[in-house]
Amino acid sequence: MYTKQDDAAAGGDRPPTRFKASGPRRRHLSAHVLVAAWVVLALLAASLQQTLPAARWLSVHMFLVGAATTAVLVWSEHFAVAMLHARLPERRWSNARLAGVNAGAVGVLTGLWADLPVLTGVGSVLLIAAVGAHLVVLVRMGRGALGGRLAPIADYYRAGAAALIVGAVLGWLLATGTAGPQHYAGLKLAHVHATLLGWIGLPVLGTLFMLWPTVLGVRMAERTTRLARRVLMLTGGGLLTAVAALAAGWRPAAVAGVATYAAGVAVAGQLLARTVRRRPAISAAAAWMLAAATGWLVAGVAADLALLAVRPLADVADGVGSLVPVLLVGFVGQILVGALTYLLPIVLSGGPGERAALRAVLERGWAARLVLLNLGLALLALPLPGPVGTVGTLLAAAAVAAFLALVVWALVRGAQGLAQDADRARTARRPAVWGTAVGAAVTVLAVLVANSGGDTSGPASAGGTAGPGGGTLRTVAVTLADMRVRPARIEVPAGTVLRLKVTNTDGQRHDLKVENGPSTPMLAQGGTRELDLGPVTEDREAWCTLPGHRAAGMTMDIVVTDAAHTSAADGSGEHEGHASSGDGGGAHDGHASAPDDSGLDLGAPFTTGWQARDARLAPAPAGKVHKVELPAAHTTVEVAPGVKQQMWTFGGTAPGPTLRGKVGDVFEVTLVNDDHDMGHGIDFHAGSLAPDGPMRTIRPGERLVYRFRAERAGAWLYHCSTAPMLQHIGNGMYGAVVIDPPGLPEADHEYVLVSSQLYLGTPGSTAQVTKMRQNTPDAWVFNGIANQYARQPLKAKAGERARFWVVAGGPSDGIAFHVVGTVFDTVYKEGAYLLKPRDAGGAQVLDLAPAQGGFVETTFPEAGHYPFVDHDMRHAEAGAHGTVEVSG
């Protein structure tokens, strides 16, 4: 059915295979139509990156999951048949696998973009099943096949298919959050490595063993088969190690795995370099393109290895993410361009003369195009200012556009030169080749366009250039800081061409999204971006898209007025007198502005296996220095009977762990930000020091050491120091520090109870933040969970002395702590004794404002059940109550 692949690899100037049946031609044509469709969609997504949510993510995944997966699926099967001299798989099942891959890709991308988890899951299952069936077919081909010198290359296709299955599973875990936010950075890196270096890298690397000598016109080296096996052991084994280690968060093992993969690439590169001979190649342009693409693979793997070796996983994820588009163009795109430069003249020509003429067309100006493309990619890859990156995009795009123009020219010339009685197979191949050529070039352009939006300082224009006769141009300086957009309101006459120069002066990252308009990328401190809105004809809102920031009031109104109502002297756009009230504009983001009626059933059962938080307070540990590590992360907690909610936590609990010491002790607390999408800080009320450094906000993946000496006794609050603190505390980022007063006597029991308010709903949503601002929580709780000590009471015995340490965590309400059926003989509040046992009086309540703390002591007179409550009855009846069960 096919000519021998070894002949082509030995230097024959003809394609590796030739069709002899119309079925494969139709299937390849259909496949290339799908490839072209995917790359067109990728280009559309990239061009809409300022207005389409997740446009850059969509463009890259449309290329990888849609176009590249379709192409690799078809051609890996095609080449495996040729290299193994195996029988062609049954066409209907091949078509079914192809349909499954594309249906799965559509389901995954649509489900993620539209936030439809069920559709995402169904798409993932389809994709994994189709690729799994493809892997089974590749394995079965090797059983009983005749084989050949190139048979080991089929193993690259099998390993690539296995890598895609792993990558798809990891992608599903990322999309659904099943593994939890603490594993996000590692899973994302594992997903990127499995898909880019596995599914794409391994098949391309294996194909180069055959394609490279063919382009050079030399005989394949005798040791190619042996080295191909060795390279696969290194790259495949290294990739498996790296993916497993990254998913588990083991950075040293991941470094070792990537280093092994890099060693395999180096061995392959050495073989390809030694294959070069002094005589001219059949196609110098194709040879240089393939060589440059291999160089980008080597550079990309080296950069990846360096990032893993020196940075935390969260920072590596950002760095590798910025490399992906450049590698897609430099490695994958350039491989396609080089292969087409060599193959198009062969499949379009009718003889040696016509072949030479078409090759001359495609190679016209190839050296200049090669330099422009790779220089542009280098400018994009290096950490250079925004304008330089824009120049790099233009250079690379110009080189690709020139190649596309030459492809069109070659196709026209090839069609004109065909004889009227040309073979129908060649006629059927022309549309398929056209789809391949256009798809490759458009894909490169699409990824370049998507990549051009990634820097944080260059200008951004999307749907906002002034047309002929447009209004007056007005540029307004916009500042992002302190959870506010300044100015909060801009008034412009209708038709004004508005440009916003956005600068983030805050310690944490922000962006700005304009309603029905452009948006900035996420800006670090000092980052600047220009947004061109074009002629403004209707009112719009702009806001920061980070969770909770819009609801906290980080919004700006753009209001269209009559010219008479806007002062011409107001050139800066600073209308502080018109600042919005900061209510978050809830009507614009799909969240209800009114608080939800939670309908909590405090009498309902907790879930099976639930345990109340241990309220017992351990004695102060020995030693003068106490070292603690507090990871900040999102954690799902059962906050009321049968009600689970995501909380923002220190140490995985809300409230965080209680720290205890004595006056003069030193606390060395290491804050680790394991949150994947927001910054956090920490503030210990028990310490006395300048907040500038230790209380600063740290980005995801960063660490901060907060060291303070406890100079004063008391019951102290600690909490997240990152704005908006109302949300960070209200969502669980608080805890208690107990510093014993000198000479504190022992008690039979010591309990710590941190009171707080509970707000149900998605953290940071407008509905939840509205409840926080209106001080209408869903419940009031002790130690983070409503009604827990009513279900699992505290334990004591009659005649025993119990000490209750109480801290009011807020964020807005204090507490009136009372134990029913007994009287307090000791009251210690905010660093001082208000009552001691020898005094004649007694106390009934420990009253604390938000952030205050203290303790009370009592002796239970007899066996029974002693309720303890917040004596604000609204609070007590809504969860702030428990029981001390006293035995005889």
Q: Can you describe what's shown?
A:
It is a single chain. This protein is α+β, with helices and mostly antiparallel strands and 888 residues long. The radius of gyration is 33 Å and the shape is elongated. The strands form 6 sheets. The chain has a 6-stranded mixed beta sheet, with no helix packed on it. The chain contains 19 helices and 28 strands. β10 and β11 (643-650) form a beta hairpin. The termini are far apart.
Describe the structure concisely.
With 888 residues, this protein is α+β, with helices and mostly antiparallel strands. The chain is elongated.
- Counting DSSP E segments of at least 2 residues, the number of strands comes to 28
Walk across the major sheet and give the strand order: 19-18-21-26-23-24
Mean pLDDT: 78
Largest β sheet strand count, sense and barrel closure: 6 strands, mixed
Backbone CA Rg: 33 Å
Q: Unreliable segments (pLDDT under 50, ≥5 consecutive)? A: 1-23, 418-470, 564-598
Helix content: 40-55%
Strand content: 15-25%
Shape: elongated
Spatial gap, N to C terminus: 93 Å
